[in-house]
Amino acid sequence: MNPISIAVACLVTTPGLTPPPFSPQDANESNVDLQRKAEAIYKGCIQLMRFSLRGARKMTSRVHLNPLWAVAETNTLESPFWSDLPVVPQGSDLRALFADLRTMNEAVIFVTPHSPMLRPSLLVEAAEKLASGTSDVVGRSKTEKVYLWGSRNLSSSGRSEKRDDGVVTTLDQLIPASLKGDLPQIFLFERAGDLSNISNLLTTADGEWARALQEQLGPFA
After folding, report:
1. Which residues touch 128 (CB under 8 Å, ≥6 apart)?
2. CA-CA distance, 32 to 27, in Å (whole number)?
């Protein structure tokens, strides 16, 4: 049996242009260093995502993974920073992005780069669940935020929590709270205070992932 084709779209913003969601929002003097730290950690998380995407493609023969960057800023689509993978504009509504990717793949996975714990095996687990016929795969953080969602059919999970203008721009808007996670709960950077947890994360990892974490986030522990 031929492996099914699954798009893995990493929903990203461009470092230096859009602050990550866990950056302090007030640009006062006391927050400048923390904002810079958040920016550097976000870049590290993107590098870890690169590691995960490469590793996941090597770990499974049941699915053919097509990783790509879905970039929020249209003026950086051709930036060298994103040149290692295909790039598409994230657009103003994730439902439209899903529909576009679904025309060329049998399923689509959306994932955010805000967790330093999304190792290759998690991506493979999500993809193989879809290959086995699961309609939706959801990964939620320890605070129930969605870090991954995969599906064969956009209408299968009864979404969603739209904004007042009807647009869906985040996974938490796309996925109803009633759709429970079926992947391991992992740590997610959500606010500036989470940046102090890096040293704990480094002690819980092992193998190649521990080395990748140390390389990207060790300087900030």
Report:
1. 60, 62, 63
2. 7
Q: What angle do CA 63, 77, 147 make, to 5 degrees?
A: 50
Q: pLDDT (tens digit, 9 = 90+) per residue, 133-182?
A: 988 999 999 888 999 999 998 765 444 444 444 566 788 888 877 888 88
Residue 211, token pair as written in the block: 């080395």
Who contacts 72 (Cβ-Cβ below 8 Å, separation ≥6)? 11, 12, 13, 14, 18, 90
Q: Is 207 a residue whose pLDDT tops 80?
A: yes
Polymer length in residues for the chain: 221
Taking the C-alpha atoms of residue 38 and residue 43, their distance in angstroms, rounded to an integer, is 9
φ, ψ (nearest 5 deg) of residue 210:
-60, -40
pLDDT digits (tens, 9 = 90+) for 30-61: 678 888 889 999 999 999 999 999 999 999 88
Per CATH, domain 4-220 is 3.30.1240.10: no
**Where are the chain's structural domains?**
4-220
State the residue for tokens 């009807």. 166
Contact 195, 179 (CB under 8 A): no
Is residue 19 within 8 Å of residue 180, measured between CB atoms? no
